Fold BRWD1 protein.
Amino acid sequence: MKPKVTMIAWNQNDNYVVTAVNNHLLKVWNSSTGQLLHDLVGHADEVFVLETHPFDCRIMLSAGHDGNIFIWDITKGTKTKHYFNMIEGQGHGAVFDCKFSPDGQHFACTDSHGHLLIFGFGCSRPYEKIPDQMFFHTDYRPLIRDSNNYVLDEQTQQAPHLMPPPFLVDVDGNPHPTRYQRLVPGRENCADEHLIPQLGYVATSDGEVVEQVIGQQTVDQDEPGLEPSILDGMIRQLQLEQDQRTGADQESAPSGPPNGEGTPRRG
């Protein structure tokens, strides 16, 4: 097998360079002389994640498609900590990305099964306020294109960026309670009645009919305590002006011949 470099990263003070090779080895190099200092052994599949510690120049994190996450001391060429991303009933999950927190006390990884893995010091109580499964109900909604080739949501015929904030659902499409819906940006100050989605029955790919979120109730901007959206107001104003111009043009345009021939004048 011809060796290929799959990832490269400098450490925090740029004294070392770490390369990941497709033979599953990590190599530590002196960045000034180019001398090979250490071979780091541990991964069993290709590595595409190398992250340096934000302030400790000795620490480098690696993660790969084998589900292994290693924290290395690259000055000594030793393994400091090892985690394995085992998913119950599904084997391991490949780790696709990872980032340290600015203070270096935590790091978070994402895997091939849609999980966010958070490691660090301290207790996990701040993270217990959210459910284990969180998806937006629009995540897998089909899209269509209009006559201008712009993308629209198939169900509502709206551009995705103009749709109301989505609802949080579990992996089966069942909506979470209202206390979780307020975690979605744009729904923080909504009344309870605006946090209850409209449910309906839809058929899945295997023919099973399940109850899922099919629409959403928009927030009444006149409700006390809610700030009206400036952007929404501008859009409504532009649409109103366009409708007025269209109506005026239609009134002033001469009607065509009775047999339908001819083209009416356009504004």
